[in-house]
Amino acid sequence: xxGFTGILGxxxxxxxxxxxxxxxxxxxxxxxxxxxxxxxxxxVKDRSExxxxxxxxxxxGLHWLTFYKSIxxxxxxxxxxCLSTTTLHVSWIEPIxxxxxxxxxxxxxxxxxxxxxxxxxxxxKDSEYEALAYGLCSALFAxxxxxxxxxxxxxxxxxxxxxxxxxxxxxxxxxxxxFQGRIDYSILKMTTSDFWWLLFLxxxxxxxxxxxxxxxxxxxxxxxxxxxxxLEPVYTLFLAVFILxxxxxxxxxxxxxxxxxxxxxxxxxxxxxxQKKGF
Length: 279
Fold this sequence. Notes:
Elements: H1 4-11, H2 16-38, H3 47-73, H4 76-82, H5 86-98, H6 104-120, H7 126-152, H8 158-179, H9 192-220, H10 222-230, H11 232-243, H12 252-276
């Protein structure tokens, strides 16, 4: 389902800001309903933790805004591949936040991903370089909220974190739209297909996917689930070729860079699995 998120950035004919605004609002409502049905606790006991979750929610909003902007300026394939550089940012952010030693192996893997991005961007036009910049910023924001969420999960449930981050992101984007004078009737204008794609994005690809993963981890284990998430670029590239026909716009260098990035993602996941097994 997460592999569809990049595709939906092209299928929904609204600008990035409005897509993300609807996504976080729909996800917040769906998560709230989901927590009621599953009888998950809503209350965060520590007020300082709630403030931290709210600040990370702003990062989530910035991540999705830059992600969809990148996709709309270029292709879904480019947007999702830029997210693969998240690994490089995590390799230096995580040691600072989690107070552990820097893993030079992770740093090297991150640099190899950047090399893959170099291949991907060899034949870019000016607008695609702008898309690349947005995509790389999106990866930085993604790394930030991923690391902070790991820290927050020590004292809060994943459902609580996600719910209040969606609320925070909703308020953050709403305030920006308010200052821009764009909160009016025109913001509700969309096609029927846009409406259904937004529901699909907010409910299934965001809130349901998140809640399902929590339950699945109990039976399949974190590695199997994490490996599936790490292969999101593969899913998106596959869908982009068959749904958006993006293979018409992608040259040989793009596929070389894509293979490098996917290879690094798989190597990193396998390495972590072997570490847990004691190898």
